[in-house]
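Example (one chain per record):
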Amino acid sequence: MGKGQPQITNTLRTLRFQAGEMTQAELAERVGVTRQTVVAIEQGRYSPSLEVAFRIAAVFGVPLEHVFQWKGGASGERG
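Predicted structure:
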């Protein structure tokens, strides 16, 4: 991938807030990663593996697309 704006964005901070202000450490423990990994994902500096992404969505009980959004342009859109 090239440099510039991240292609994948997320709503982790909002979801944590809506889940009773869940901490990054609590989310990390439930997903099985470190708090630093959650921080990096939340800040858009790291894209999680597909398995971790699904685990995160499961913690909040929402579809994967509600947690992560891909800004890939027209080729990634459904028509």
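Caption: Residues 50-60 form the longest helix (11 residues).
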